[in-house]
Amino acid sequence: MTPDVLATLQQHLLQCLASPPSEVRRLLHGRGRCWPGLEQLTVDWLQGTLLVCLYRDPGAAALAALQDSLHALTRQPQWASSGAERLLLQLRYLADSPALWLHGTPVQQCQVSEQGLHYLLDLGSKQNNGLFLDMRLGRQWVREQAAGRRVLNLFAYTCGFSVAALAGGAQQVVNLDMARAALSRGRDNHRLNGQPLERVSFLGHELFRSWGKLRKLGPYDLIIIDPPSLQKGSFVLSQDYPRVLRRLPELLAPQGLVLACVNAPEVGTEFLLHSMAEAAPSLQFVQRLDNPPEFADRDPQCALKAMVFQAPAAQG
């Protein structure tokens, strides 16, 4: 990161802070390769906390220069007027993703809002904070589709889709994720929004051993599949995604919808289209959801793929 690149970063952040978003939002998505020199940097506005994530080691001198630039940011009038209180730099290229608190009192959690819904985020203690901001329009779509429907949320993580589905009037939501701690945070998110937990199930199970349980709780009018690209020992996208798709016909109600997601730059839309055609040919492609404009990518095939498919109507 050259001085010119750091000056561009600071100028952009000052413009954002001069009129900060009213809810949680990405401010700079360098990984979309639309910001020359900042390809391994992202900046998120967490409503009082500025989270800067660095995904590649820039070298000691460049890292020190970045920290100096961020410190300087906190001394500008735009920082104070924005209501920002904390600045956190997370080194995602290191094994434990350590966090450096550059400004403000360190805290373990913060609460953010998105489209009127509330979520608890972790700060500085985990690789991911608990809410993937690029899925904002996906959560909005689920909320718009959920009324009266039974929803299955696979790889549920902290249950953001489930919160959105309940807000949209879902009849029942089943969340499945092998990480029980993430599901516990999902319960917290539902409680935070005053949502009835009797309409939500939390299954801390390994998916490929749970098909029988899921069939008994179905059928489902809407299934969400948002897996990790690679989860060591449990999920390899190229091998295991088709195994999930193959089960969809036995889980879906007639005309049920599927939101199938992939967020791996090396995997384009053809992967999902081809895999669905091979594994569940009765399901028809409907649309690819837009990504939030703040997640612009030089190559849309490298960005998040959130694609909708639909089961056929009942026969007879």
TrEMBL record:
Pfam families: Methyltrans_SAM. Keywords: Methyltransferase, rRNA processing, S-adenosyl-L-methionine, Transferase. The keyword Lipoprotein does not apply. InterPro entries: SAM-dep_methyl-trfase, SAM-dependent_MTases_sf. Residues 25-309 form the S-adenosylmethionine-dependent methyltransferase domain. This is S-adenosylmethionine-dependent methyltransferase domain-containing protein.
